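User: Some background: our group keeps a shared notebook of sequences we're curious about, and every so often someone picks one and asks for a predicted structure to add to the entry. Today it's my turn. The entry only has the sequence so far, pasted here. Could you supply the structure so I can complete it?
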Amino acid sequence: MTYPTALEAAERNCRRHNSQPGDVEITAAAYPQIFEAFEAISHDSGFSAGHKSYHVPACWADRIPSIETVLAGMDPEQREHGFVLGEGTEVEALVASRPELAPAHALLNAFFEDFHAAE
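Assistant: Of course. Here's the predicted structure to add to the notebook entry:
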């Protein structure tokens, strides 16, 4: 695993925690499953976790509620270790067998990549 430089880490944290116009705020109270997934990804990627919120670009706004519902319906162990933090081929096989996970998979990948493709 390659860890980011201090500047890269600061830029990533800035984007994830400072909203832009129209961004969706992801909190533990509003979207607990998405929030926990973001926390796990942040921690696993070598970034800090324990934030009060994350911000998702507005283009995801209409998909957030259904992604939360799908994640909430998963077995907690499978959700965290098999889906959120799973290896690429393992996650791809899970998404292939459960197509309803595709939007959640896309969101988590976008978060991991700092939403660069969405901006």
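Suggested note for the entry: The helical segments are 6-17, 32-44, 64-72, 76-84, 88-97, 102-112. The chain is about 55% helix and 5% strand.
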